[in-house]
Amino acid sequence: MSALVLVGMSVSDVDRRDLLVAEARRRGASVAFLQMGDPSLSRELTRLADDGATTITLVGVSTGPIGPAHSWLRRIAAHWWREQAGLTPTIQVATRLAPALGQLDDVLAETKPIHGEEPGLTSGAWEDVTSHRHQVMVCRGPRCTAKGAEDSLRAMILAMMEHQLGDADVLLVHTGCQFPCNQAPVISVQPDDVWYGHVDAEAAADIVREHFVDGRPAARHRLPRRTS
Q1: Sorting pLDDT into bands at 50, 70 and 90, what band is 86?
Q2: H or E element, residue 206
Q3: In this predicted model, what pLDDT tens digit does every residue of 61-73 receive, in sequence order?
């Protein structure tokens, strides 16, 4: 028995779950997520193996501004396969990610099997906490997502690239609801304990320039912090 799994790679793909599920149903496939969504890829592979699948084809779908590279799809699949002692099923992985559902057929035209020698889930480069000065918590709760958090995040990433800021400077982290929801989209900056609300694309660029580069919180859209 063969099975096809559409794997959402980014948080944005979790947000678009309904579209992913509808496309999977049309293809007689199932859905899994690499992060922040259920079922996880490992859980879905286990389910399919228990159901008797002998060949499983994985295709990653990445439609958001922050998503892991294609190599992570192979890493996770290979980790699961090794945990099964290399027994059935055979796992095939599309050689590139689909940036849109309409490109799935093109991406599925070329697949490569998991052979068990792929890199593992650990590396010396990931041993220590990074030296970042700011940790930016980007709310991806339902209200923030509905009010454009993805566009704000994309603008922030582009502004960071413009100012040559990387993970060693600013670490961007997706979160669930942070409150206060009426101020959506919301981000908070730690350890400065600075909160921003109604962060549109323009405000996101201002925050990068003023807070992360110039070193002072951006007055625009800063929220008062109640301490009691």
Answers
A1: low
A2: helix 201-207
A3: 999 877 889 999 9
The token pair that represents 146 in the structure block: 């509905």
- Give me the sign of the Cα torsion angle 18, 182, 172, 218: positive
The CA–CA distances, whole Å, from 6 to 38, 79, 216 equal 13, 18, 43
- Which residues are within 8 A (CB) of 206 and not within 5 positions of it... i.e. 6 or more apart? 218, 220, 221
Give CA separation, 24 vs 7, 10, 35, 153, 202, in Å. Answer: 10, 17, 18, 27, 36
Whole-prediction pTM value? 0.90
* Type of residue found at 38: D
d(CA 221, CA 107): 42
Side by side, the strands of the sheet bearing 194-196 are 170-175, 134-139, 187-190, 194-196, 222-223
pLDDT in tens, 147-162: 999 999 999 999 999 9
Q: List the structure tokens of 196.
A: 């921003």
Give the residues across from 31 on adjacent strands: 6
